[in-house]
Amino acid sequence: MKRVLVIVLIAIVAIGGAMPYVPVDFLKAPMERALAHGLGRKVEVDRVSLTLFSGPGVSLDGVTIYDDRRAGIEPFAYANTLDARLSLLALLRGRFEFSSLHLNDATFNLVKPDNAPWNFQMLLDQASAGGAPSALTPAAPPSIPTALPSITVRGGRINFKFAETKSVLYFDDTDLEFTPGDGGALELRFSGVPARTDRSAQNFGHFFVRGTAAPSASGQQLNLRVELEPSALDAVARLFDNSGAALKGVVALDAQLSGPSANLGVKGIIELEGAGQWRVGYQGKLDLVGQTLELDSTSPPGPSARLHVGTRDLLTTPKWEISADFLDAPLGSAFEMARKFGAPLPEKMTVEGRVAGSAYYRNTEGLGGNLEVHDAIVTLPDATPLKIPTATVFLKGNTIVAGPNTVGIAEQEFAEVGATYQTGQGGGSQIEITTRRMSIGDLRGWELGMLGAGSIPLLDRVADGSLRGSLTYAAPSSTPGAWSGDFEIQNTTMAVDGVADPVHIQSAAVSVKEGHVAVTRIRANAGPVAFEGDYRWDANRRDPEAAAPQRFHLQMAEVDLAEIERLFQPTTSREGGLLARTLRLGAAEPTPEWLKQRSAEGTVSIAGLTVADTHISITTARLAWEGASVKVSGLQGKLGDAALAGDLRLDLSGRAPTYRFDGKVADFPYKGGKLDFSGKVTAEGSGPALLASVKAEGTLRGRSIVFSPDAEFRRVAGRFEVNMTVAGPKWKLSGLELTQGSDSYSGQGATQADGKLVLDLSSGGRLVRYPAN
């Protein structure tokens, strides 16, 4: 017995293995007729083979299922392979019928002809009629009616066509199951990924559809559950509008559809995840025949706000609208709704108040609607809350315009604020602020919180004070934002690199435009040093050979050189601590980056500069500062009653600053006459060390000098050298040529140990010595 079973099993295996290779071309025509009868469609098959192990049936290659003639000439479906299972009961009755069809790598064309139902509806109607073909179908199936077999599709694609126009929308990676039930009903299972033919990159999850279709007097009645697994929100928007905006978040939905295909009731939940989680219930109607969808929210936002979604031409050229009606709704809810849909709103901003009005977005025309905000309070961390009694917001096209509206910032501080936001290419945002008085600290707090950067030129270095005037922030979509405006600042303090004391600005007028800053009518002081003038800065400097980006004109009244030296001590000295400065130990501190980057030029005038016991006035001087090099050229002024002119150079690259002055002093009063000096003065260091290091040399000329009671010189010429010491200046004179009456003298002079200057002269072989009075 066992031997017989083994032989039977071997025979079955051998037959099953050989069946695919048995020539059965004679079955192709019966197979085509049987399929046509079961589907109500003409069917063509390229090749037929038999199968046994997966059930008695056939495997068909190159299967083309034609469509009802009302749907056009393109096939309804094409499959590389189709595995068909034969009905044993039908075989016993002597005819071919299929219990199931399994299509692999198949493509379907769903067509909606003019003045006719969808071609899949024609197929369902055929199934509900027991398989009897329409008089318009191109095949002539057998006269015995059959039921529609169960159909399974794996890895397929579904295209859509409307009359002669193909839709850019399609479903890929499609799995589909049709299972016939009692009374012509069908059970449907579907999953697929929606996509567009004009986009390569897709970021969409699967659609899942499960349910039944049952015949009725009014046509097929559908009862379906539709689910969308979590998908990128911007991908969903671009599915129906290829130019849609990049929205934030992930969306998923669950819906129940019931009714005829032309009037499906829709009810479900949509979930949006991104900044938190948001669930909205909705209900409405879907017309698959007319391609329209109308949905209204049921929860939330609630009774004070309603959402509506409407679409037309859903699968051809979609026209859709999302609208919201606010009936004195909480402003915070509307704010969060806009944030979750991708509006560029600060994450830490909170909003209170009420909003009324309506707003919509249509993919064919953009935004629309009007909103009115009442009793709003806008808050950011570390910023004074903004209070907005009433504000109007207008939406049109791709533009949102708010205000200008009155905004309360603090006690007795108000501003008129207007904002414009435009989407799309060439768009961007713009904020305009006009105020009679606003705290600069409050403005910076809001600027940092809302715009993300301390970018207002000059004010980004200001610590306090107030502002009045106007400011505009413009941020085109393709470039970084920038500030412009004309305003006045008062009673504010700012730190300047390299200056020991902060600069206190009593008042100044500021103009900002396209990276250029002009500060005029400056009244300020740094410690006891008061000054006036103007300052200009070009933040867009690109050419290093071009003029310095910072330009200024400064005027000072009375100032002590020791105070100026103290103020600039962080710039001029990098000798470390007191011990290092005294003993000159260790290396100098490195040049700071801000000094390397400094590039400024301008003019300076000082009405009264006190140097020790000497009074100097500088009428004008041109200062050029590049990194560690400072040059003061064209200096004109007075040294006491004498005229002063020349050029001064400072080198700040070493341990201590070095100075060199090349110039001249004319008409310097000396012993009843006048002296002219021309030469150079050098010095190094700071404080007492600076004065002790002064050295000078050059030429001198004099007139009417009463050097002593018995030495009155009509003319004087020669060279000089001066070294400063603790006891005072030490003079050395050489090459002297002097005229006294009709006599001429030559010789030299020097400062003696007692501090007196003595001249040693000769005239015609006669030596004379003249000590100064």
Sheet of most strands? 40 strands, mixed
Helix content: 10-25%
Tally the beta strands.
40
Low-confidence stretches: 1-23, 131-145
Overall outline: elongated
Q: Roughly what is the average pLDDT, rounded to an integer? A: 80
Report the radius of gyration as a whole number of Å.
48 Å
- The chain-level structural class is mainly beta
Count of individual helical segments? 12
Distance between the termini: 154 Å
Strand content: over 45%
Question: What would the keywords be for this entry?
Answer:
single chain, 773 residues, mainly beta, 40-stranded mixed sheet, 57% strand, disordered N terminus
How would you describe what is shown here?
With 773 residues, the chain is mainly β. The protein contains twelve helices and 40 strands. It has a 40-stranded mixed β-sheet that branches. It is elongated. The N terminus is likely disordered.
In short:
The chain has 773 residues and is mostly beta strands.
Please render the helix and strand layout as text:
Elements: H1 2-18, H2 28-39, E1 43-44, E2 47-51, E3 57-65, E4 77-86, H3 88-92, E5 98-112, H4 119-128, E6 150-162, E7 165-180, E8 186-196, E9 207-214, E10 221-232, H5 233-240, E11 250-260, E12 264-274, E13 276-287, E14 292-299, E15 305-312, E16 319-330, H6 331-340, E17 350-362, E18 366-379, E19 386-397, E20 399-410, E21 413-422, E22 428-439, H7 440-451, E23 466-476, E24 482-494, E25 503-513, E26 516-526, E27 529-538, E28 550-560, H8 561-567, H9 569-572, H10 578-583, H11 593-597, E29 599-611, E30 614-626, E31 629-639, E32 642-651, E33 658-670, E34 673-684, H12 688-692, E35 695-708, E36 711-725, E37 728-740, E38 743-751, E39 757-763, E40 766-771
Parallel strand pairs: 5-6, 28-29
Antiparallel strand pairs: 1-3, 2-3, 3-4, 4-5, 6-7, 7-8, 8-9, 9-10, 10-11, 11-12, 12-13, 13-14, 14-15, 15-16, 16-17, 17-18, 18-19, 19-20, 20-21, 21-22, 22-23, 23-24, 24-25, 25-26, 26-27, 27-28, 29-30, 30-31, 31-32, 32-33, 33-34, 34-35, 35-36, 36-37, 37-38, 38-39, 39-40
